[in-house]
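> forwarded from #structure-qc
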């Protein structure tokens, strides 16, 4: 949480993104390569970052704004 707070206070999206990871993704992607493909597609379409939340099926994507979020949806 310290890195996230620091990045938000500094307005530094690169620092914020550098601290985001999910250790379950490699395991899940090995079993379900289509999910890794989906992640790559979201990035190619303009998401700054996307990843699984925890070990379950929900995902999130960081985008430039509401319009980009609607576009990716």
């Amino acid at each position: 949480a310290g890195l996230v707070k620091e990045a938000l206070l500094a307005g530094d999206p690169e620092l914020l993104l550098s601290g985001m990871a999910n250790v379950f993704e490699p395991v899940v992607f090995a079993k379900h390569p289509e999910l890794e493909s989906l992640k790559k597609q979201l990035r190619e379409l303009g998401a700054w970052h996307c990843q699984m939340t925890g070990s379950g099926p929900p995902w999130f994507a960081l985008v430039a704004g509401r319009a980009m979020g609607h576009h990716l949806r």
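QC bot note: The first helix runs from residue 2 to 10. The longest strand covers residues 49-52.
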